[in-house]
């Protein structure tokens, strides 16, 4: 059974059968999209000429809704776009590491960037809040518009850009200060007025950490677990009331339980913030994101390797019916 037959059979029925409470789904001939269901969190139970997968209770709802609307594609439209990138190229010295990326990033949605190692995902992410400005040799061509304003225009203040567009890194990096002072740091530096206690409490609540730390706010942040430290870094980022959160593999240093907490948190935060996440974990992209962009590495006639955006589309589409064969090969594990 291939995609077309599966579509005729009804991906909606597949999803309905796979819902928690009716956990068994049997699919003939291991179609690649069934492997995608597995990649997205279902468990493989057999692999002969048929594949049985079970869906865990936290099966991704996004996947279910995609299955209910097979073939639907709804790339981010400019009216909802927070960022619009046009022909963006990134260089370090003479080396061009990313070529001609054109894409939109939707407001209050989670956009995941996945793809081959060295395809420029982190460089692209960091260019969205000018984090690379001070990196020796960094140069950007093309246009990144943020709220329709050229992010790299001469009159734009990079500090203000980084206030409005926050960043959470791969490894939790709290300051060697108290939990309270970590969260209060940004608001103080930015001269935010109002009760600091309220600001700190609000940020910790939003980062789903308040209940765990409210009785020890003056304790060192370094005493927290890795997962708590990462949520503290998220609290620190949102304390200055940004509009966007950029996350560069925020769970790669965390165990599965801490990862699940951050993923839940991301979905909560997406109500208020636009989130862009770089992840190597396709299951994570499938679980948390609304849109997914896939980047690959190409080699030019001089042997120069550079990253390219292959496609960006609804996550459900990317994981069930991508437009480009390279995306399909990547998400089904055929290369990369
Ligand atoms: N500061 C830098 N100076 C020079 N080259 C860099 C710098 N940062 C990244 N690069 C190069 O740019 C290319 C893209 O790197 P980048 O980290 O953006 O890719 P990535 O897709 O995020 O990779 P990975 O998945 O392995 O983390 C790589 O060839 C990398 O070596």
TrEMBL record:
Pfam families: ABC_tran. It comes from the Bacteria. One of its GO terms (cellular component) is membrane. Keywords: ATP-binding, Nucleotide-binding, Translocase. GO terms for biological process: phosphate ion transmembrane transport. Residues 83-322 form the ABC transporter domain. PROSITE patterns: ABC_TRANSPORTER_2. GO terms for molecular function: ATP binding; ATP hydrolysis activity; phosphate transmembrane transporter activity. PANTHER family: ABC TRANSPORTER I FAMILY MEMBER 17. NCBIfam families: 3a0107s01c2. This is Phosphate import ATP-binding protein PstB. It comes from Acrocarpospora macrocephala. The gene is pstB_2.
């Amino acid at each position: 059974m291939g995609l077309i037959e599966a579509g005729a059979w009804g991906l909606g029925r597949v999803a309905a059968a796979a819902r928690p409470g009716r956990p068994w789904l049997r699919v003939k001939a291991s179609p690649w999209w069934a492997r995608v269901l597995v990649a997205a969190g279902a468990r493989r139970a057999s692999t002969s000429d048929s594949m049985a997968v079970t869906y865990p209770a936290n099966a991704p709802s996004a996947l279910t809704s995609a299955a209910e609307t097979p073939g639907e594609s709804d790339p981010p439209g400019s009216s909802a776009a927070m960022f619009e990138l046009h022909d963006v190229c990134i260089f370090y010295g003479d080396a061009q590491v990313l070529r001609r990326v054109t894409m939109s990033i939707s407001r209050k949605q989670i956009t995941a960037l996945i793809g081959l190692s060295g395809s420029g995902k982190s460089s692209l992410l960091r260019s969205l809040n000018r984090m690379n400005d001070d990196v020796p040799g960094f140069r950007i061509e093309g246009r990144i518009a943020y709220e329709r304003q050229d992010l790299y225009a001469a009159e734009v203040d990079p500090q203000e850009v980084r206030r409005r567009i926050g960043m959470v890194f791969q490894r939790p990096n709290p300051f060697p200060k108290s939990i309270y002072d970590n969260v209060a740091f940004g608001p103080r530096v930015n001269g935010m007025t109002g009760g600091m206690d309220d600001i700190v409490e609000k940020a910790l609540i939003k980062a789903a950490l308040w209940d765990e730390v409210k009785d020890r706010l003056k304790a060192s942040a370094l005493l927290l677990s890795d997962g708590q430290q990462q949520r503290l870094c998220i609290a620190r980022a949102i304390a200055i009331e940004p509009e966007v959160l950029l996350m560069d593999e925020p769970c790669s240093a965390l165990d599965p339980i801490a990862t699940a907490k951050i993923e839940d948190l991301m979905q909560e935060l997406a109500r208020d913030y636009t989130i862009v996440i770089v992840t190597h974990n396709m299951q994570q992209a499938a679980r948390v994101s609304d849109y997914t962009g896939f980047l690959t590495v190409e080699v030019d006639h001089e042997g120069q390797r550079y990253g390219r955006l292959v496609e960006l589309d609804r996550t459900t589409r990317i994981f069930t019916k991508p437009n480009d064969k390279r995306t399909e090969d990547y998400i089904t594990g055929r290369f990369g």
